[in-house]
Design brief:
Number of domains: 8
Shape: flat
Strand order of the largest sheet: 11-17-16-13-14
Oligomer: single chain
Keywords: Disulfide bond, Glycoprotein, Immunoglobulin domain, Signal
CATH architecture of the largest domain: Sandwich
Protein name: Ig-like domain-containing protein
InterPro entries: Ig-like_dom, Ig-like_dom_sf, Ig-like_fold, Ig_sub, Ig_sub2, IgSF_CEA-related
Organism: Monodelphis domestica (Gray short-tailed opossum)
CATH topology of the largest domain: Immunoglobulin-like
Strand content: over 45%
Number of strands: 66
Length: 709
C-alpha cells in the first residue's frame, strides 16, 4: 500500500455562537488517506462525562458548555500508518450571563438635597445592556446615573441587565426613602400634681416623619420594673412615684434614619409625705422643775402642718413648745403631722415620767450558814420608785451559769457555792432614771470541806526499829477533825502520830477527816511494809556433775522477804544467748556448757528495799573429753630386740582411762607400755581413751613393722 502525505485538517463548529449551558459540536474536516482521528484539549486527550466523540472520533461534542472549563484550545489530528497532521488550535469564545445583577452598595435613606448615585453591575459575555426604572418608569439606559434628592425621588429603583446572545435578563431592586428635618417635641403630663406612690405618665408630642421615640432620664435610657413604655414608646409611665428616683430631668427624642430632635428637659416636683413623724431626741424621764422643749419633725413636700396633744388634749399648733416639769406633766404627748396635697397624716408619741430620790437598800440572806456546793440566795430589800435592781460581786456585774437572778433581778441565787468564787463582797444597787443608791458590802464566809484528805509524803516501806511519823492534812472551813485507824482499829485522834517500826506495825493506815458544818467526811489510805534482815542464800544445782555441751541449772535457795534475785558470774551480771534466767530470776540455766566459759565463780544475791545478801562463790568443775586421743610420735619400723614404749594422751576431766589393743587383743590398761620387739609384735596398735562422766570414748591407731635379720 502506498500513502501520500496528509493535508492539514480544519475544525468546523456546529453553531456560530458557543452559549454557556448549551451543547456544542466540533468536526475535524480533512481529506486524504485517513485511518484515524484524534482530539486534544489543552494538549491532552479529552476526558470526562460531558465530552462525547462520534464512533469514528471525527466529531467532538461538549455537553452543557462552561465558560471556564471549555475555552480550549482544541486541536484535531489525522493519521495513517506513515503520516499524521494536526489542525491549528481552536479557542471557544463562550457567551454567558448576565449572571446576577447587583446594585453597587449605596444607602437606602437620604436627606433632601443629597447627591444620590446608583450603579448596576452584572457579569456577562458579551457585555450587557442596562435599563433603570423608577417606580416602573424608565429613567436611564446606562449602568450608572445620579439625582439630587427630593421627596419625589423616594420609591423603588429597578436595574435590568440583558444579553442578546444568551437571551438572558437579570434584575436588581433598591428602595430609597427621602427624609425632611424634624421639629422639636414637647412633653405633656397626665396629671397636674405628681404625688409619691401614685402612677404618673409623660407623653412625647411631635409631628413629622418620626420612626422612633426615645426617652432619657438624667441623660440615660430609662430602666427598671417601675418604668413602662407604650408600644410605640411615645408615652412613659412611672409606677409608684418616689421623690428621689423620679425627679428627672426627663427628655424625649424623636428620630428617623437621618434626623433627630429633643425636647427641653422636664423636671418633676414630686409631692410626698409627711414621712415618719419624729419627736426630737430628749429623755423620757425628768426630775421636777426642769425646762423641757418638745420638737416634732416630718419630711414632707410641701411642708407639713403640726398639732400637739397631751393625754389626748390639744396643747400646741406649732412644731415645738416648752414646759416647766411638774407631776401634772406626766403622761403621753402626741405630735400630728399633715400634708393636704398627699392627704397623708403621721403621728409620733412620747411619754414623760417624773421621779423622786431613793433610800439605801439592805441585803437579806436565805440561810444562816453558807455551805459549799449548796445554793444560797441574797435579796435586795428597798422601797421607792425603783426601776431596776443591780448586783455587784467584787465590784463587777455578776456573770456565769452558776449565778441566777430573779426576773426582777431583786434576788441573786448562787448555785453550788464555792469558797473562792463566791466569797464576795456583794453589793445591791437600786435606781431609776435620776437616782440610785447602794447597800453596804456583804461578805460570805463559805463553809467547805474537808476536801481531799492527804497523808503527807512519807515512805511506804521501813526497816524494823525505824521511827515512823504519819501526818494527815485536809483543806476545810472550819478546820477538820482527824481520826487514824490501823487495819481498821483506832490508833490516834490527832492529825499526826509516831511509832517505832516492828513487824506488827505493817498494814493499812487510814486517815479520816470530818467537818460537822458541811457534814462531809473524806479519807486517805497508806499501806506500810516492815522489813527484817535477810539470811545468806545457797546455790543448788540441777545435776551432781556439770558435763560439757550439756545444759546445767543453778537455783538460788533462800528464805525471808525477798523482792528480787540477782546473779553474778565472775563478779558481773550474766549476759549472752547461752544464759537464761527463769521469770523470777531465781534459776540460772547454762546452755551447752564449755570448760572455759562456764567455770564461774557464780554468786546469787537476794534483795528487798532495805536488805540484801549474797551466796558464797560457787565454781563449776566442768567434766569434758576425752578430746582427741594421740599416740606419741615414734617410728613405725623396728629391728627385733629393740625396747619400744607406746604412750597415749587425751585431754579429759576427770583424766581418761586408757586401754591398748594389739590386733584387737587387750595388751595394757595404762596410758603407756613397753615391749622388746620381736616378730610377734608386728601389727596394729589401738589406744582407747574413755571418760565415764561424759560417756565419751576416743581412739588412736599405729601400725608397727618388725624386721628380723
Amino acid at each position: 500500500m502506498i500513502y501520500a502525505p496528509l493535508s492539514k485538517p480544519t475544525i468546523i463548529t456546529s453553531n456560530n455562537t458557543a452559549v454557556e449551558t448549551k451543547d456544542f459540536s466540533m468536526t475535524c474536516n480533512a481529506t486524504g488517506q485517513i485511518h484515524a482521528y484524534r482530539w486534544f484539549i489543552n494538549g491532552l486527550a479529552p476526558g470526562g462525562n460531558r465530552i462525547q466523540l462520534s464512533p469514528d472520533k471525527r466529531t467532538l461534542t461538549i455537553r452543557s458548555l462552561r465558560r471556564m472549563e471549555n475555552k480550549g484550545p482544541y486541536v484535531c489530528e489525522i493519521e495513517n500508518p506513515l503520516f499524521r497532521k494536526r489542525s491549528n488550535p481552536f479557542t471557544l469564545n463562550v457567551t454567558y450571563g448576565p449572571d446576577n445583577a447587583t446594585i453597587i452598595h449605596s444607602a437606602n435613606e437620604y436627606p433632601t438635597g443629597a447627591n444620590i448615585t446608583l450603579s448596576c453591575v452584572a457579569d456577562s459575555n458579551p457585555a450587557v445592556q442596562f435599563t433603570w426604572l423608577h417606580n416602573g418608569q424608565p429613567v436611564s439606559n446606562s449602568a450608572t446615573f445620579s439625582i439630587i434628592a427630593s421627596l419625589s425621588d423616594a420609591g423603588t429603583y429597578t436595574c435590568t441587565a440583558s444579553n442578546s446572545f444568551t437571551g438572558l435578563t437579570r434584575t436588581a431592586t433598591k428602595n430609597i426613602i427621602i427624609y425632611a428635618p424634624l421639629s422639636k417635641p414637647t412633653i405633656v403630663t397626665s396629671n397636674i400634681t405628681a404625688v409619691e406612690t401614685k402612677d404618673f405618665s409623660l407623653t412625647c408630642q411631635a409631628t413629622g416623619q418620626i420612626h422612633a421615640y426615645q426617652w432619657f432620664i438624667n441623660g440615660v435610657a430609662p430602666a427598671g420594673s417601675r418604668i413602662q413604655l407604650s408600644a410605640d414608646k411615645r408615652t412613659l409611665t412611672l409606677s409608684r412615684l418616689t421623690r428621689r428616683d423620679n425627679k428627672g430631668p426627663y427628655e424625649c427624642e424623636i428620630r428617623n434614619p437621618i434626623y433627630n430632635n429633643r425636647n427641653d428637659p422636664f423636671t418633676l416636683d414630686v409631692a410626698y409625705g409627711p414621712d415618719i413623724a419624729t419627736i426630737d431626741h430628749i429623755s423620757d424621764q425628768f426630775a421636777t422643775g426642769i425646762n423641757v422643749t418638745l420638737s416634732c419633725v416630718a419630711d414632707s413636700n410641701p411642708p407639713a402642718q403640726f398639732t400637739w396633744l397631751q393625754n389626748g388634749q390639744s396643747v400646741s399648733n406649732s412644731a415645738s413648745f416648752s414646759i416647766i416639769t411638774s407631776l401634772n406633766h406626766i403622761g403621753n404627748y402626741t405630735c400630728i403631722a399633715t400634708n393636704s396635697f398627699t392627704g397623708l397624716t403621721r403621728t409620733a408619741n412620747k411619754t414623760l415620767m417624773i421621779y423622786a430620790p431613793l433610800s439605801k437598800p439592805t441585803i437579806l440572806t436565805s440561810n444562816n450558814t453558807e455551805v459549799e456546793t449548796k445554793d444560797f440566795s441574797l435579796t435586795c430589800n428597798a422601797t421607792g420608785q425603783i426601776h431596776s435592781y443591780k448586783w455587784f460581786i467584787n465590784g463587777v456585774a455578776p456573770a456565769g451559769r452558776r449565778i441566777q437572778l430573779s426576773p426582777d433581778r431583786r434576788t441573786l441565787t448562787l448555785r453550788s457555792l464555792t469558797r473562792r468564787d463566791n466569797k464576795g463582797p456583794y453589793v445591791c444597787e437600786i435606781e431609776n432614771p435620776f437616782y440610785r443608791n447602794r447597800s453596804d458590802p456583804f461578805t460570805l464566809d463559805v463553809a467547805y470541806g474537808p476536801d481531799i484528805a492527804t497523808i503527807v509524803h512519807s515512805p511506804d516501806e521501813y526497816p524494823t526499829g525505824a521511827n515512823i511519823t504519819l501526818s494527815c492534812v485536809a483543806d476545810s472551813n472550819p478546820a477538820a477533825q482527824f481520826t487514824w485507824l490501823h487495819n481498821g482499829q483506832p490508833v490516834s485522834n490527832s492529825a499526826t502520830f509516831s511509832i517505832i517500826a516492828s513487824l506488827s506495825d505493817a498494814g493499812t493506815y487510814t486517815c479520816t477527816a470530818s467537818n460537822s458544818f458541811t457534814g462531809l467526811t473524806c479519807t486517805a489510805t497508806k499501806n506500810i511494809t516492815i522489813y527484817a534482815p535477810l539470811s545468806k542464800p545457797t546455790i543448788v544445782t540441777s545435776n551432781i556433775t556439770a558435763v560439757e555441751t550439756k545444759d546445767f541449772s543453778l537455783t538460788c535457795q533462800a528464805t525471808g522477804q525477798i523482792h528480787t534475785y540477782q546473779w553474778f558470774i565472775n563478779g558481773v551480771a550474766p549476759a549472752g544467748s547461752r544464759i537464761q534466767l527463769s521469770p523470777d530470776k531465781r534459776t540460772l540455766t547454762l546452755s551447752r556448757l564449755t570448760r572455759r566459759d562456764n567455770k564461774g565463780p557464780y554468786e546469787c544475791e537476794i534483795r528487798n528495799p532495805f536488805y540484801s545478801n549474797r551466796s558464797d562463790p560457787f565454781t563449776l568443775d566442768v567434766a569434758y573429753g576425752p578430746d582427741i586421743a594421740t599416740i606419741d610420735r615414734i617410728s613405725d619400723q623396728f629391728a627385733t630386740g629393740i625396747n619400744v614404749t607406746l604412750s597415749c594422751v587425751a585431754d579429759s576431766n576427770p583424766p581418761a582411762q586408757f586401754t591398748w589393743l594389739q590386733n584387737g587383743q587387750s595388751v595394757s590398761n595404762s596410758a603407756s607400755f613397753s615391749i622388746i620387739t620381736s616378730l610377734n609384735h608386728i601389727g596394729n596398735y589401738t589406744c582407747i581413751a574413755t571418760n565415764s562422766f561424759t560417756g565419751l570414748t576416743r581412739t588412736a591407731n599405729k601400725t608397727l613393722m618388725i624386721y628380723g635379720e
